[in-house]
Amino acid sequence: MTATTAPDASPNDASLAGARAWFADRGLSRPREGRVLAGVAAAFARRYELNPLVARVATVAVALVLSPIVYIVAWILMPQDPAVVPAAPAAPARA
Fold first, then answer.
1. Which of 59, 73, 86, 87 is most buried (CB neighbours < 10 A)?
2. What does the DSSP 8-state code read for residue 7?
3. In whole angstroms, what is the distance from residue 60 CA to residue 15 CA?
């Protein structure tokens, strides 16, 4: 099982090529055949010898559970805009 990475990429590099080399060293590469979207669930299924359907269902379940949690955490941590104080009404212009 080989992955397409830069020939001089090290898994310790802080770059995209380094990240791809890290995944390739662990046997995680997206297959060209049998994938639905990008092949991430298929790669985990192949690496950990799972049924591809089980891997896909687990991927969707994790996305559905983590997305609301991330939103709630952002809701708690993100400050509100400061309160707007209404401006005093302008005096009518005299001619």
1. 59
2. T
3. 28
